[in-house]
Structure formats: C-alpha cells, structure tokens
Amino acid sequence: MKNYVLTPGPVPVPEFVMLEMAKPIIHHRTEEFEEIFYKATQGLKKVFMTEEEVLILASSGTGAMDAAICNTLSKGDTALVVNGGKFGERWLKICKAYGVNTIEIKVEWGKAVSPKVIEDALKENKSIKAILVQASETSTGVEHPIEDIAKLTKSRDDIILIVDGITAVGAFPVEFDKWGIDILIGGSQKAFMMPPGLAFIVLSKKAWDFNDKSDLPKFYLDLSQAHKNSLKKTSPWTPAVTLVIGLNAVLEYFEKLGLEKLFERHSILSEATTKGFEAMGLENFAKGCTSTALSVIKSPEGIDAGLIIKGLKKKYGMIVAGGQDQAKGKIFRITHMGYVDKADIISVIAGVEGILTELKYKFEPGSGVAKATQILDKL
C-alpha cells in the first residue's frame, strides 16, 4: 500500500529535492560548498522578507527556539509568553531551563491571542524583556496576529518580539523587516518541504544589541559565531551538507513560482480542506484565526478522532496527525505544506468520508469531496 504522509511536519518532499540530495556528498570546507551555502542564505532572505542575515542551524526548529532565548536574554530576565498550545507551552519550558522568569498569557486552544491583552500585560509589567509567540500554532491550527503584536514593540528599545514561524514562514506572509519583528524562526520540515534537520533564524539589529548583553550559556547554538561564519559563506560547525543542497532546490522553486503564488496555493488548499469538511458537518478547530499551513478538524460528537486517524492509515495508507493533551481524541490535523496537491486533499477528504461511513456518522456521501473539488479548481 502506498503511504501518504499528510502530517504538519514532516511533510511530503518533492522528487526534484530528493534527487538533488541523492547526489554524491561533498566536503563542507570547500569553495564549492561555500557557494551553495551562500546561495541558500540569500534565498532565505527573500522568504523571510528581510535584508538581515538568515542563519542556518543543523537542528530541528526547537534548536532555533532554544537559541532565540539563550542568545538574547539573561538569567532573571522576564519574558511574556503566549501559551495557546503545545508550542506556546514549549517557550515556557525553554525559559525555565535557562532561569528566565515568565509571565504567561493563557489562550484557549483554538483561539488567537488578543493584542490588547499583550498591551495590558506590558503596561502592568515594566520588567518584560521579550514577547514569545507562535505565528502559527501547529497543535491547534491558529494563526496569531503577529503584525498587530509587532506594533507594540517596534518602536521600543527595551523589549524584543520573538516569533516561532516554523509552520508559518513559507506558508503565509510574515514580513520580518516591514512589521518590525526582532527574531523569526523557521524549519525545514514544514513549508520548506524538506526532511527535518535544518532550522533558520534571523535577528533584527535590536535583537543583536540584546545578544551583546546576554549572559546565558551557549556553545553549539552561539548565534554570534553562526553570524560571523555565515558572512564568510560557512558555518562554525559541520553543516547538514545534503539538506543545504536540497534547500537550494526548494528556494529555486520558490523563486520560479513567486511568493505570492506560493502563499495563494496554501490559502486555496486550506479553504478547500476546511469547506470540504464543513460540507460534511465537521468544524474547523480554529475559527476566524485559521492558519493556512494546516487544517485542524474537530471529530464529530461521540466519535474519537483516534478512530479516524487509525482508519485512514490502515485502510488507505494515509498518515495524519492527532490532537495533543486536552485535544487528544477530539481533532485530526492535515498539512497543506510540502509537496501536497489537489489530489492529496481530495483523497484525504474521501478517505475520511469512507471511515465516517463505517462509523455510522450521518452525512451526505460525496459532499466533502464535491465542495473541495469546486474550490480546488482555483489552482
């Protein structure tokens, strides 16, 4: 049986990327690789919408989250953390590991944070040095209003905005320079449609000023070293050579397609998936704040989402993600990132229709596929 990986990371990888990565390995301390590395950093600037240097780390996205904290804050500093899902929760855990104090803004899962709540917290707590937030919360499918949040910090020298854009960068616009974000993070296994193993991070000039004063321990994730080496077309440690080669193939594809078309593609796939399931009577978990990177769908009342997930894998070879913690058994998550096309969306909706029919859920057979097909004609 053919397997379909439709999880929000890892995502399907295009054949042209895999073919590039299948070429013979080259040594990283050579002019040949320096040019490959430099080309990747320049291409990343366009996707991150910045003139600043985008650093490439050999790690998962969490490595860049860790680096964002230990390179800019100091022990005893206070960070304001938006916690609306598993990855907002991760910010709290990283801060705790480094002895950074936190003020938590708890957001109901499936909802976006209100910038007014953040503004009020900043007024009440003058000691806050950083705001930590997700652009796209992968566990809930929520897009947080980063542009509006950035307005609260852009003109201030005493506070930085750190954004986890791991399931945002490349899926929808996150304008680093224009909005005034201070740190933005990306990951290879999401909209960059590659295997896991690379993280990307960019710092504003303000964030580099914070870096100068940071006293937290750092070695492998020392961004000042990564920055110095990146300007010389290399990295301080052994890079993930094969993945960087594959990254260039992706960036060339993005350049040819154009960012506007890339974002539009994610948006149409998102709309088709959401409205396809709505036609079957299934709701989107994130309403009015939906990330176009993935669809998070609520299981029908009385049906454990785990049965849908297991049924898709066993009967159709389709692998989708489930809910975590309080959302376990209540939702299933489907990617729009990576090498996903119209046929994949139609297939997974048809698969869910088949499983729900077996589970005696009452709906009009074919309604989801019909609605999704209609919308996917826009592509």
Classify the helix fraction into a percent range.
Answer: 40-55%
Strand order of the largest sheet: 2-10-9-8-5-3-4
CATH class of the largest domain: Alpha Beta
CATH topology heading of the largest domain: Aspartate Aminotransferase, domain 2
Unreliable stretches covering 5 or more consecutive residues: none
| Mean pLDDT over all positions | 97
- The total number of structural domains is 2
Ends distance = 28 Å
Q: How many β-strand runs? A: 14
Structural class, from secondary structure content?
A: alpha/beta
DSSP summary: helix tally: 14
How large, in whole angstroms, is the Cα Rg?
A: 21 Å
> Which descriptor suits the 3D outline?
globular
Largest sheet, described in full?
A: 7 strands, mixed
Write the layout of secondary structure elements.
Layout (H helix, E strand, L loop, with lengths): L3 E2 L9 H7 L9 H18 L5 E4 L3 H10 L7 E6 L2 H13 L2 E6 L8 H10 L3 E7 L1 E2 L4 E2 L2 H5 L9 E5 L11 H4 L3 E5 L11 E5 L1 H9 L9 H8 L10 H17 L1 H20 L15 E5 L6 H12 L1 E2 L1 E2 L8 E5 L6 H17 L8 H10 L3
Parallel strand pairs: 1-12, 3-4, 3-5, 5-8, 8-9
Antiparallel strand pairs: 2-10, 6-7, 9-10, 11-14, 13-14
